[in-house]
Amino acid sequence: MTHTIRIAEADISFACEAAETILDAAERAGFTIPYSCRKGVCSSCEGTLVAGRVTVGHARQVDGPAGALRFCQARPCGNVAITPVAIANVRQVLKRFAATVRDIGRPAAGVSVLSLRLPIGRRVPFRAGQYVRVLLGDGDSRSYSLANAPQHNDRVELHVRHVPGGRFSGAGLAALKPGDKVDLELPYGTSCPPDGPAPLILLATGTGFAPVQSIVEDLVRRGAARPVHLFWGGRTMADLYAAERVGGWTARLAWFRFTPVLSRPPAGEGVCPGRVQDAALMEYPDMSGCVVHACGNPAMVAGARRLLTIRAGLPAAQYFADAFLPSDGAGW
């Protein structure tokens, strides 16, 4: 059965199958609604159900009017009206490539940096904060943030956290060597911090540093000088595997600041204990004029959004996030 999704107070509507999510239907119709994780964690696609009924997840039904509806999880029970944070009639062109492995670095225990080269003469424009899907050959895939600057769009750099039993991060990655091929589809994601003078607060845990690297290197190459403050969390300093690179940014970029946040901090100054969102709130009790980009474990991404919008006055529309979580609950 096909239903109609109408954008309230706009001359936009599109068809949606009963088993299809509203986000998928919008994209199929050529519209782009902000999204990132597509698993109901990051809240990037969150909007309002103005009228009608939807099924969320497997069974929960929601009747409009209702707020905080995540369109990546909502399937219509009939015709519905919604109000997304934003919608644009721009179809993102996805491209598939067999990329070549250039190098595999291991900057820390449990983390690999995979450098790939696209076919000669091929480039894929993307925005800092977007991600790529690694295709596994049987219809399955794994998603990783692009860590290279958008100006270097003839290559792909991925930061891969090793997960025991993971299809790609485990045996698949261990078997790769320079010259091997990796099938990719890109670019995905709309959770990219906007340009502008507003201070940019970056929250990352673990390999959530990957899009941070892309964002900062993009600003450097474009000559931007907006205030940027990175809060990067791990258990110990060894988990902050690109600390030398970040130290270089701190030394040469007057507009960049870095606060390491550790759950097992050593004695001494310069390190914040606890959670990255708490450290950011302590430094910025008023975020009404800031933009926040969070990337890493789902608990941090969801917790930071709640904390900073409620306690620091951060407008929900100025919170951009990318939650790292296993595909379909399985290992990566």
**Gap from first CA to last CA:** 34 Å
Structural class by sheet pairing and helices = alpha/beta
Helix tally equals 6
User: What is the string of helix and strand elements?
Assistant: EEHEEEEEEEEEEEHEEHEHEEHEHE
CATH homologous superfamily descriptor of the largest domain: Nucleotide-binding domain of ferredoxin-NADP reductase (FNR) module
Q: What is the average of the pLDDT values?
A: 92
Radius of gyration: 20 Å
Portion in strands: 35-45%
What is the count of structural domains?
Answer: 3
Helix content: 10-25%
- What best-fitting shape do the alpha-carbon axes yield? globular
The profile of the biggest β sheet is: 6 strands, antiparallel
- At the fold tier of CATH, the topology name of the largest domain is Rossmann fold
Number of E-type strands: 20
Q: CATH class of the largest domain, please?
A: Alpha Beta
CATH architectural grouping of the largest domain: 3-Layer(aba) Sandwich
What tags apply to this protein structure?
single chain, 332 residues, alpha/beta, Ubiquitin-like (UB roll), Elongation Factor Tu (Ef-tu), domain 3, Rossmann fold, six-stranded antiparallel sheet, six-stranded parallel sheet, 36% strand, disordered C terminus
Q: How are the elements arranged and paired?
A:
Layout: E1 2-7, E2 12-17, H1 22-28, E3 46-51, E4 53-56, E5 60-63, E6 66-70, E7 74-76, E8 80-84, E9 95-108, E10 111-117, E11 131-135, E12 141-145, E13 155-161, H2 167-175, E14 181-188, E15 200-205, H3 209-221, E16 228-234, H4 243-252, E17 256-262, E18 272-273, H5 276-283, E19 291-296, H6 298-311, E20 319-323
Parallel strand pairs: 1-8, 15-16, 15-19, 16-17, 17-18, 19-20
Antiparallel strand pairs: 1-2, 3-6, 3-8, 4-5, 4-7, 9-10, 9-14, 10-13, 11-12, 11-14
Helix pairs in contact: 5-6
